[in-house]
Design brief:
294 residues, alpha/beta, Metallo-beta-lactamase, Chain A, 7-stranded mixed beta sheet, 10 helices
Length: 294
């Protein structure tokens, strides 16, 4: 690597965290103006996709109907609460019994406080930790570390922590009967293959992300519901996993060669179709991969 003066790693990571927090706050405070219309994926399994200004940038909500109640995966922003409830009522008379948060960001947990205490809310322990540390409303009262299962109306839902990726609290919510999995922002975007946004303020990791997705792929899902954007399948998830691995390898090589941030950003835009939201985590990614190379 070329010799050049650098800030200490701790300083660079702190700066990356501040930049990401500012960018992510702006991104996740976008209000939803589109009607919430459930899309049927399979018997008793629906997704509510939201759009803002023609872009799928509001968190998806998965709806699973059982004879004893409804299980939701994520609940979007606080202002979406009434719309989410109305959308569920449009397809079933069963009450909402559980909300499972895929991670802690406000576009996936914003309605938690309005669902509580009538609804049980579940998330990974790290997701609750981030919500309480950041004084976010509605931290889940039920947490787990590796896996928990919800049984309702004779149906099983597996909630599995496979490792770090977008944050250190991302979970996969697997519906065995439907061979479907909801992934939150382990897979997020408007296209079938998307670029990773790593929240380094919340323990995210580009290096760990491919292995995390490998564990999800081992479930062999037919339906893959992303945190944002259109529903895909196992092949789409594998393509996303491979792209994340390719990005990690490319950036690691560029960091090893001493390329500056601006050059790396331009290469990511050219080679991987990066957008501004993706580049917000570049400082943290460079710091992580620089430390790993030592």
């Amino acid at each position: 690597m070329r010799s050049r003066a650098k800030r200490p790693l701790t300083v660079r990571l702190a700066m990356a965290c501040l930049v990401f927090l500012a960018g992510w706050a702006a991104y996740t405070q976008t209000e939803s103006g589109a009607p919430l219309t459930p899309q049927r994926l399979q018997d008793d399994l629906y997704v509510i996709e939201g759009t803002t200004n023609g872009e799928n940038d509001v968190g998806n909500v998965t709806v699973y109907i059982t004879p004893e109640g409804v299980i939701l995966v994520d609940d979007r922003f606080a202002q979406d609460y009434r719309g989410v409830v109305a959308a569920v009522k449009a397809i079933t008379t069963q009450p909402i019994r559980y909300v499972i948060n895929t991670h802690h960001h406000g576009d996936h947990t914003g309605s938690n406080s309005q669902f509580l205490p009538a609804v049980e809310i579940i998330a990974h322990a790290n997701a609750r930790k981030h919500m309480t540390e950041n004084k976010m409303p509605g931290p889940p009262p039920i947490v787990f570390t590796d896996e928990t299962d919800v049984y309702l109306g004779g149906k099983q839902v597996r909630v599995i922590y496979n490792g770090r990726g977008h944050t250190d609290g991302d979970v996969a919510v697997y519906f065995p009967e439907a061979r479907a999995v909801a992934l939150g922002d382990l897979l997020a975007g408007t296209r079938g293959v998307t670029n990773p946004v790593v929240d380094y303020t919340s323990g995210g990791s580009i290096r760990a992300w491919p292995a995390t997705l490998d564990s999800v792929l081992a479930l062999n899902p037919d339906i893959v519901i992303p945190g944002h954007g259109r529903v895909t399948n196992g092949e789409g998830l594998r393509a996303h996993r491979n792209k994340v691995a390719a990005i990690e390898k490319r950036v690691s090589s560029l960091v090893h060669d001493g390329r500056p941030k601006d050059d790396i950003g331009k290469i990511l835009v050219t080679e991987f179709d990066y957008k501004p939201i993706n580049l917000r985590s570049l400082d943290g990614m460079m710091a992580e991969l620089s430390a790993a190379a030592r």
